[in-house]
Every structure is written in C-alpha cells, then in structure tokens.
Amino acid sequence: MTFMFKRLSTDAINTLLIIGVILLVIEVVFFNGGLVFSVLFSSLLIYIGWKKYHVFWRKIFFWIGVVSLVLTVLSMIAVRFLILAALLLFIHNYYKSKKEPEQLQLEIIDTNEEIPYNEPLLAQKFFADQSTPHQSYKWQDVNIHGGFGDRIIDLSQTVLPHDEAVISIRHLAGNIFIYVPYEVEVSIQHSAVIGRAAIFQYKKTKVLNQYVSFRTSDYAVAKPRVKIITSIFSGDLEVKRI
C-alpha cells in the first residue's frame, strides 16, 4: 500500500482532498445537517466511556460511541467518494507498477519598489496560491500557515539580512517552491505526510510521513543564510538555485 501511494501524483491527491472537503461542506450545509450532531454525540459517548473504561456501563457507552461514529462517517458522501477514488487509484497504480516497476535506491542528504514594513510578504490564506512580489521587495521573515494552494518564495528579488533569514510554512495541501540565489547558504527542515521533496541537485525524494533535513556545507560559518522550516500534510517541496 505504501508503495502505491508513493507512485501517486501529489497534485492528484490534493485534488481528491479538495473535492472531498467540498462534498463534505455541501452535504452538511444543504442535505444532512444532522451529521454534525451525530458526530458530536458519538464523540461524547466515546469520551464518557473512555474516562472510566474499567466500569462496565462505561465500556458499553464507549463502544456504542465508536460504532455510531464509524457508521456516521461511512455514511458521508465525501468519505464514500474518497474511498472509491482511493480504490480506483490503487488499482490503476497497481497495474501501472506491473508494467513500469519502480527502482528503489537509498538517498542520504547530509550536508526598487518596496512593500510597507508592516505588511507581511505572504498572508494567512486558506484557499489561494501565493507568491512573493515579482519585482524587488524588502525582506521580512515568513511565518505563515495555510490550507490549499501553492506558495512561491523567490529570494533573488530581495536583499537578505546579514545574520539569518527565516522561512516557516505550515500547510495542508499544496506545493511550496523556494528559489535561492547561489551565494546564499541554506538549512532545511521539512516534514510531510504525503509528498515529495527536491532540494538543489539532489534527486527528488519521495516523502511519506517522513522528515527531511538538509544543510549546505558552509551554513554554520558563511553569510547570508536562510533557515527553511516547512510542514505539509500533502504537497511537494522544491528548493533550487536561481
């Protein structure tokens, strides 16, 4: 199963997640508002039962809540869609893997208009693609979280601080692209549940619930330098020189 998910396109997975969320919202708002109550009630039974699970009637509450919650979740149109889509993608990639076997290899990574000072480079947006300005801009450290969409940060259009610049992005679904000038040293800490990571000249790494750490050889002593911290549920990270 893990092998099959690694072969899936991250964009395809993100599209399925977005469709699933849209179907869930439509179902709850227009067709079945009682789903929220059912989930909350089942969760309450589970909580009550789990608090003192050794008591017999609490065990009954707990398992009634578990069964009720599972049945409620499985009755959702969005969940049925995601299950069906996952099965179809699994079958498709299974037959594809038979024709095009994947060769696994171990990979180890060791190693002049300005925006106002009080305006962040990237805002907190749940749905939207975002990018740093395409013209010269004044640098500010990036610390954002987002929902769906791509994030693009081009460091070639700004002057980094003398000590250390920081980019911190926590994201649900989407790709992150960071373009770094050749003279800038880089430290990267990246985690993802589903996705891929391509860092400079290194071959694209498949990330499945993994943590990737990378540092250029002169990062500790040379400047300018940038620390990149990214966390994605589903998406790709690409860092390249420009």
UniProtKB/TrEMBL annotation:
KW Membrane (keyword) present: yes
Keywords: Membrane, Transmembrane, Transmembrane helix
UniProt name for this protein: Cell wall-active antibiotics response LiaF-like C-terminal domain-containing protein
Family matches, as Pfam families: LiaF-like_C (PF09922)
Alphabetized InterPro entries for the sequence: Cell_wall_LiaF (IPR016975), LiaF-like_C (IPR024425), LiaF_C (IPR047793)
GO cellular component term of the entry, any: membrane
Parts of the chain that traverse the membrane: 12-40, 60-91
Source species, domain of life: Bacteria
Domain Cell wall-active antibiotics response LiaF-like C-terminal: 126-239
